[in-house]
Amino acid sequence: MNPAADNNESMNIVKATKKFEDWLRLHIRIVTPDLRYKHEQMAAALFPFFRATFYRWVQVWPDQCPELQKAPEILAVGDLHVENFGTWRDADGRLIWGVNDFDEACLFPYTIDLVRLATSAMLAMRAEHLTTKPKDSAAAILAGYLRGIEEGGIPFVLGERHEWLRAIAESKLRDPVVFWDKIDRLPTVKGEIPESAREAIEHLLPERGIPYRLARRVAGLGSLGHLRLVAIAEWKGGRIAREAKALTPSALHWLDPKRVPPEIMYSAILRRAVRCPDPFVQMRGHWVVRRLSPHCSRIELEALGTSHDECKLLEAMGRETANIHVGTEEKRRAILKDLRGRKPNWLLQAAQAMADATEKDWRVWRERWQS
Fold it and tell me: What would the pLDDT profile of 62-106 be if each residue is shown by its tens digit?
């Protein structure tokens, strides 16, 4: 069955969710309690609904933004939003800031990442997580992106530069004591553990034979229902944690399997991006494995609220988006030409259209959930 054959208007959010989750079960073992929790979060508030439903975004986006579908195609993040940014340590031990995960990486028009990022900011404003005006936020994202594309990309190293961004990354919410307390409260895994997941995690441990407790973690929103396992250990006087998360092809493959191959593009986009890589992020089969630590994790909206200059932060997010896109080097000139040919308010208008469509879907889902 090809879900793209269904009319997007007739396939409402409830039907789309059912079809997508049926497809998901063909690729991975679903964690049913996590999926139920995801449904609850989708009903609870608009911003979590947005983050949890990228599969619906790829359905609605072509109808709402048909002109943007014609933009140059690159290897894009896909599920980009203001909470998909975080920090890690590079091979030199430096603190780096940038896009946190690439679960939905696939070939898209470059415009999809910009519109999704601007839409997420707009929805965060509607939820009073951000205070910037929509026009200013879209302008900041676009300015940062254009500058990044023109420069060819520059990674965000939080040392002597970007002190204001380092202050966000080192907020109280990322305190080591708080972090390890949350890790310690993760429930120990019971039942059968996929051997491929165990092998993937152990490959990332610093030594063979380190005793560890294997726990189950519930995190994110779009990937809720995917199995996440965390190995927690003591090593040379301190705590360490390694996570394995099950991956699937992008939701775009679900929508159009004849056109989009079932390839997981996580490694490809990491290799191409202008980036100071995290040496602890690796693909092992259909698992992505990474180190977890207070400074190697996603930054949530609560921490973003400590910034006194939201436009400055959104501009940085635009520049980091460019860092990812210039990895498709042969399309850089085409992107610049396309950008310069667009009307000044194109991003604001597209984000407003997608925000309104998302809110409409959310109201349908919430009504269904409450009935």
Answer: 999 999 999 999 999 999 999 999 999 999 999 999 999 999 999
Is residue 112 within a helix (H) or strand (E), and if so which, with residue range? helix 111-126
Q: CA-CA distances (angstroms) from residue 148 to 101, 167, 299?
A: 20, 22, 22
CA angle 55, 60, 65 (to 5 degrees): 130
Are the C-beta atoms of residues 102 and 266 closer than 8 Å to each other? yes
- How far apart CA 290 and CA 245 sit, in angstroms, is 9
The DSSP bridge partners found for residue 236 are none
Average pLDDT over residues 270-290: 93
Beta-bridged to residue 38, according to DSSP, are none
Report the Cα–Cα distance between both ends of the chain, in Å, rounded.
30
Please give the structure tokens belonging to residue 226. Answer: 């995917």
Q: 154, 145 in Cβ contact below 8 A?
A: no
pLDDT digit string, tens, across residues 48-67: 999 999 999 999 999 999 99
Cβ(84)–Cβ(101) under 8 Å? yes
Q: Which two tokens stand for residue 245?
A: 């998360």
Residue with tokens 């594309």: 149
Contact 207, 254 (CB under 8 A): no
Contacts 24+ apart (CB under 8 A), 67-70: 68/109, 68/111, 68/112, 68/115, 68/346, 68/350, 69/109, 70/109
Q: Quick count: other Cβ atoms within 10 Å of Cβ 2?
A: 11
Threshold 0.85, pTM exceeds: yes
pLDDT tens-digit series, residues 171-227 = 655 678 888 999 999 999 988 888 999 999 999 999 999 999 999 998 878 888 899
Q: Which of 324, 364, 361 is nearest to 112 (CA)?
A: 324
Cα–Cα distances in angstroms (integers) from residue 351 to residues 75, 77, 155, 344, in the given order: 21, 17, 26, 13
